[in-house]
Amino acid sequence: MAASTSPDRFGALTHSTLLMIPAEIGCPLPDARSYSLGSRIRLPSGRRFSHRNPMEPGNAIYAEILHHLLTVVGFLLAVFLIARLMSEKRQPGNTLAWLLGIVLVPYVGVPLYLLLGGRKLKRMVARKSLLAPVPSRNTAVTSPAAAGAIAQSLLLSGACPPMGGNAVLLITTGEQAFADLERRICEAKHTIHIMTFILGRDDTGRRIVELLAKRAREGVKVRLLLDAVGCFLSSRGFVDPIRQAGGEVHRFMPVLPLQWRGSANLRNHRKIAVFDHQSAIFGGHNLAAEYMGPPALGKPWRDFGAVIEGPAVELLNEVFLADWCYASGQSIGALRLSVGTPELEARGAGELQIVASGPDVAGDPLYEGIISFIQEARHRIWIITPYFIPDEVIFRSLVVKARTGREVKLVVPARSNHRIADHARQYYLRELQTAGVEVLLYQQGMMHSKGMIVDGRVGLLGSANFDLRSLFVNFEIGVFVYSEPEVHAMRAWAQDLIRHSLPMPVEKSRHRLLGNVAEDLSRLFAPML
Length: 529
Description:
This protein is of the alpha+beta class. It has 17 helices and 19 strands. Helix 8 links the parallel strand 4 and strand 5.
C-alpha cells in the first residue's frame, strides 16, 4: 500500500513510512542508517521534514531506573547525614547552618559536610581511649587542688587529676621560646618528641630542622609530628634531612588522598615538645619566625607558653604518644617498651592539670573547664586571646558576671592576622563592653597569646583560642594551674599586656554599610570559622 504524500499528513509520518517515500516517488532508497538523530530531509515537493529518532525503549527504562536510584540514594544519604549531625550535639547555630546547607543546597552541602563537617570521631575515641593520659605509680604526686570544684568538674569530663611537684617556667617572648627550645634540643640525651601545627619554611624552621637532623645523626631518637594542613608546604622534602639522619617524621591526618569524613577539617593544633621524658615545652608557639626566633630575625608576635619539669611531663608525653601512634600506625605497647617508663621525681611545687580536648575525646573537657572557671569566679576574670568568637553559653556567662559586679577584662589584639575573625568578634566585644566588660586592644603588633586567670588563684594556658574551632573541633591541649606562685607569675604577664593595651573605643552608632555587612556575614559564618 502506497504511503500518502499529502503535505498535511507529513507531521504524522513514522520512521517506517518515511523509508517508503523515496520508492513511491521514484527516488533511490537510502540506507536507513543515514538518518541520524535530528536530521532534516528535503522531499521532492520542496517541503522540509525534521525527523528525530525516538529513544530506544531499553535505554529509556535504564535512564528512568538510574534517575529513581539516584533519588533514593540521595535521600538516604541526606537522612543519614542529618541523623549524624543531630547526634553530634553541636552548638545550635552550627547545627542549623549545616542542616540548611544539606537540605536546601544538597549538591553543595552534602559534599562539604562529608569533607569538613565531622566533629567527634567515635572510632578514634575508641582507638585512643586506652592512650588517654593517666599518671603511672612512678610519677603520681597528689595535689590538694584535686578536691576543688574546677578540678572535679574536669575529672568528671574525662581529664586526668591534678599533679603536684612540678617546676614551671613561663615563656613570654618569642626570643625566649626559641632559646629554650634550641637549648633543650641540644642537651637531649635519649629522645626528642615534638608536635606542632605549623613548621615554617623560614630561618626558624630551617634552624630547627638542622638541629633535629644533627641530634638524630648523633644517636638521639627524634620523632617529629606535623599537622598535614598547617605544615602542608613543609612536611615533605623540607624535613627530609631529619629522615635521612635516622629521625622519624609523620603527618597527622593527611588531606590528600582524603582518608575519611572530616579529615580535612579536624586539625591537630597541639604544640608539645618533650625531652628525655624529663622536661616539656607547651603553649601557643608554632615553629615559625612569626612565633619565635633569635633577635636577629626581628620581633616575633607576642605569644605565651611554659617549660615544665616534674610528674606532669609524663602526661604531656602520653598525649604525644597517642597522637604519634595514631598518625604512624605504630604500636603504643612496643613504643612504650622502647622508651621505658621514667621515674619522675618532684621538681617544684607547681600543681598542674593536663587536659586534652578534641575529636579523640568523648566530651569537651576544656570547654567545660572554662565554663567552670567563669562560674567559680568571685572577684575577677582575665581572658587573653588572639581570636574571640565564643559560643552562647560562654558569652552569656561573661555578660552575667560583668553585670553582677565582677571585674572582667578581655585582652585581644587591636588587629589580628585574620580579618574575618576580627569582623566576627565585633558583635561580641560590643555587647560585652555594654555589659561592663573592660575590652582592651593590644597595641604592639600581633598578640597570639592564650591564657585565663580567675581571682588570682587559678590559671589556664595552652594551645586553644577562645573560638568555636578550638573549643569544639581542633585537637587542643590545655594546662590548668592551681599553685599560687605560678598563677601570680601569670598575672604579672597579663598585667604587662594590659599596660600595652588601650580600651576599645565606645561605638555610638553603626552607619558604615559595608562594615556592617562584613560584620554580620562574618558572625553568620562564625560557627564554621
